[in-house]
Amino acid sequence: MNKARRNPLNSALAHGVLLTYTVIALFPVFVILINSFKTRKAIFREPLALPDAETFSMIGYQTVLKQGDFFLYFQNSMIVTVASLFLVLLFGAMAAFALAEYRFKGNTLMGLYLALGIMIPIRIGTVAILEMMVSTGLVNTLLALILVYTAQGLPLAVFILSEFMKQVSDDLKNAGRIDGLSEYTIFFRLVVPLVRPAMATVAVFNMIPIWNDLWFPLILAPAEATKTLTLGSQVFIGQFVTDWNAVLSALSMAILPVLILYVIFSRQLIRGITSGAVK
Amino acid sequence: MTALKLTNVCKSFGKIEVLKNISLDVEEGEFVVFVGPSGCGKSTLLRVIAGLEDATSGTVEIGGEIVNTVPPAKRGIAMVFQSYALYPHLTVEGNMALGLKQEGQPKDVISSRVEKASHMLSLDQYLARRPSELSGGQRQRVAIGRAIVREPKLFLFDEPLSNLDAALRMRTRIEIATLHKALDASMIYVTHDQTEAMTLADKIVVLRDGIVEQVGAPMELYNNPANQFVAGFLGAPSMNFLSAAEVGGNPDQVLGIRPENLRINGEGQLGGRVMHVEKLGGDTNVLLTSPGGDEITVRLFGQHDISPEADVRLGFDPAHAYYFDAAGNRLRA
Predict the structure, then answer these.
(1) pTM over the 0.90 mark
(2) Where are the alpha helices (DSSP H) in B87-165?
(3) Complex confidence, ipTM
(4) Which residue of A has its CA nearest to B103?
């Protein structure tokens, strides 16, 4: 900010608000992390204390790594999340491009139909989805989850992306047409790079619910070979006894991959390659 | 041979008719300017010619071939856009070469054409840069270069100078005029700026509400406008219109006189009160109000000291007066 416009009081206030929010947002994560490195007794005695020489323990991580096939769960979650995001972005962007770019009969109606999915939760159709998966033999496959999550993510993706697609300069697309580029080349080479920040936003919005979902893995793919991380962690939560060390350790480890994915997408958010294209 | 022939071209978006029955010929090597206020359909007409929009009815012929169903890339045209529309991910060289690569031209042809065009536009030292590293004027030259390398039958310019500042606009205008002479190509140029139209065109097409109002050489339109709209649109400051009753004529008619044809002297036909004086150094524009309440502009050559609020008489040569009927059509004596 410009020096003449800077007001120390305002700046302090703004930072105060931001810091408070950061603390509130990070507090649960912090508690999970520190407790995952403590003994069971220490967790209950003083939940907010940092692990010291006496209370430090890796027992939770050991349990997690021994029991069940945790790396497989990780892999399953990763495959499902990445594949669903890829499909959501690909089809969402294509549908959004068509809605924003081409004039055809029923364009608005089609846009509304696609946006309807935002208002109707997909879980209402769980029974029907399960019946479909059973009859197609997709139960207990990762494909079942990928298909469901793609369907779940598409409405919001189309809705957000079509707004951004409308902002891409018509001149640029027309220049491509006059130079003989196909509609696919125009879409992938000219339009997609310009809406990359919007696509990253959509990816972040979709990633967290997919990664954290318990409902569909439990219903559609509860087999050992297709368990996702969230479902796998449930082993440690019992009706009467819960192995808190293991739960906290599993959750701590589950944070890492999302964090990495988030960093990748947020880089795209920041990268501004659009300057100089138009004007 | 005609470079472009439009026959009864109509275009409507839904119920809105944007172009109404436009017929036009552009001869080989001619520089034609479409001019008109915003929303008159001139850009749409250019897009129909380029093939970016389909004509609702009528035919478009480029170089003797009907191209209504030919895609833009195969029509033998090249287009320069107002917003430059350079490909952000390609260098200057890549931007210019892309169209040729798509046509499947051999590499040596591409490089020699790019070299020739970049030399012509003095872009040689910028070939490796990306559009974001260029100034506005350079970007527009790259956009023009991208059109030149295609060696099209017809160049289309869509308000190419509107994003440039005044000094650069004039320089680029002269460059485009020079380019037209050097390439001897047929060009169609869309603008809302009458100065660009007057200075560049061999032939001006004045459009209003999707209708061609008049077609002709710049001076022909200036000296002999078909109606009040054309008379008022061309020339800056624009023509003065006042009720003919002010000079003792038919009150249903409109009298038009260009600002440079009015003189301030003691015994003129018209009266007026000076409202404002604009001194430009070389010229002086005097803005007056007539007794009937019409605004009048007088353009005087040189510097004059005229005080506001003064009552003056304005004289003009009847040969320079134009008369229009109530519907705006020219009345010829």
Answers:
(1) no
(2) 92-103, 107-120, 136-148
(3) 0.84
(4) A180
